[in-house]
Design a protein that fits this description.
Length: 72
């Protein structure tokens, strides 16, 4: 994990690399935008707060049961 690409000069090109300032994980040649994953998780968390399913403050977790009913 590197804070910025400019940490090394000349620039390094490892197979797997996480750049914190970009919020990206590179598993060459496939980049993963961790910023988008964070934004989606934050949106889900906000919706759970709005529904009263998840506590507003403090640590915790939530398990939402998914029930399957048989249709007749």
């Amino acid at each position: 994990m590197l804070s910025h690409r400019e940490v090394f000069n000349p620039q390094v090109y490892p197979i797997r690399l996480c750049i914190a300032s970009e919020r990206k994980f590179y598993n060459m040649p496939f980049p993963i935008d961790m910023g988008k994953i964070y934004a989606e998780a934050a949106a889900i968390l906000e919706r759970l707060h709005d529904l009263g399913i998840f506590p507003v403050s403090g640590p915790g977790g939530v398990m939402i049961p998914l029930t399957v009913t048989e249709s007749e």
